[in-house]
Specification:
21% of the residues lie in helices and 37% in strands. The protein is of the alpha+beta class. It folds into two domains: 190 residues, outer membrane lipoprotein receptor (LolB), chain A (Clam), CATH 2.50.20; 226 residues, Ribonuclease Z/Hydroxyacylglutathione hydrolase-like (Metallo-beta-lactamase, Chain A). It has an eleven-stranded antiparallel sheet with strand order 4-3-2-1-11-10-9-8-7-6-5, with helices on one face. α1 packs antiparallel against α2 and α3 packs across α5. The N terminus is likely disordered.
Length: 486
Amino acid sequence: MLWKKGLIVAGLVALLSWFGGVGALQDSRSVIAKVASTIGATGLKTIRYSGTGFVYNFGQNYRPDVPYPKFNATYSRAVDYEKGLSREETVRTQFENPPRGGGGQPLYNEARAAAVVTENSAWGGGALALTPHGWVNAAMNAKPTLSSARVDGKPMTVVSFTSREKYKVSGYVSQQNVLERVETWTGNPILGDMLIETTYADYRDFGGVKFPTRIVQKQGGFPTLELTVRDVQPNAPVNIQAPAPAPQVSRAEGEKVADGIWHLAGTPDPNSQVVEFKDYLVIVESSVTEGRALANIEEAKRLVPNKPIRYHVNSHHHSDHAAGVRAFVAEGSTIITHEINKRFYEQIMLKSPRTLLPDRLSQKPKPANFVYVKDKYVLTDGDRRLEIYHVPNGHTANLLMSYVPQEKLLLITDIFNDFGEPRPNDPPAGVVSPYYAALGEHIKQLKLDVERMAPSHGRRVLPAERLWKALEGKVQAPPPSPPKTN
């Protein structure tokens, strides 16, 4: 009879568990319904909102352990919840003086950008499910679960669900039945499973719809948006067109620069270079994606078969120049980078979980080998020589440039580019970028005989005379900082 009693107990446990699951689901639905009623999500088809504040360029910080560069910003967004579309428009002006970090600094003029998010866009901070009213819609159409937490000493009800059958979304609901925080995670080639955290505060009523007037978003632990909302228009007319899907093709094409040196242009940016030694190859400069890094590796093998890519020179940690580092680790290459990157690369880039965006290294793990440069490092086989130097500058504290003395060729990243035509943010007449000035001064200090330069962005190999002409007779001056906004 003991076995019958065991079956009865097991059945009761299963039944209670089933009812508990149903109860939790019902409770989560009721929490979502209360939020929908409080903020006026029911019947909201579109919304427009705008404000002022600050934006920060993700992944472009001066050092990997400090916040991203900060810009004054005016911001507007239109959302069509029925079509699953939104359009963000941002106007940036210079905030930091002197400029520190990337993001197109220094800005001499307004920098305008627009981005359209669709249901098929890459999961990121602009996803509609991360907005208060979009979160309600997404949660209602998912299988939410319920838990509790305390945030800054306040009790919160946490409603969690999975979006797109992949991405976890957790909404923190206050006792006033408003959404105060949303967390999600997305795959990033450098940071792995990266936290995106958006907080909402100071809700106000706008025509029967409550909307937060203070929005702060963080990605990878640092702010990317701080916005004071000035205007909200519920159910305003919007006309957002979904862009045609862009082809995700990575390619690299080698162009011979000198015997044993090739310039690798292609898509996506930036450019890279291959330098051949007697028994091995070196690829200088990484990539904005793993795909482009793999294309660089394949092109190098095509150009010079049967020689291993023993070294990869990583110029700095910025997101468009370090996303391919893990691909070179998987290739077995030793990574040459600045010593500032040691903790960031070894503890975060290599050890962060990668469940959302598995790459070649996570699928076939391999130990990483690094050479950390302070001021100078030299590779030579007795004939060819590659000199790697740290460049003090405002763009990034850990920038490396590479010099081939036999060819009088400098391989340089970011602080010198030449796109072949005027650009909206070019310095005004009589002013030179402080980044150009820092490069010119360092070349002189090192007494390098540079005749040609291969930049990472823009046109390919250029005469060094372009840099000297840019510096000739001009005054180094950062742009004026406009009044700071709140």
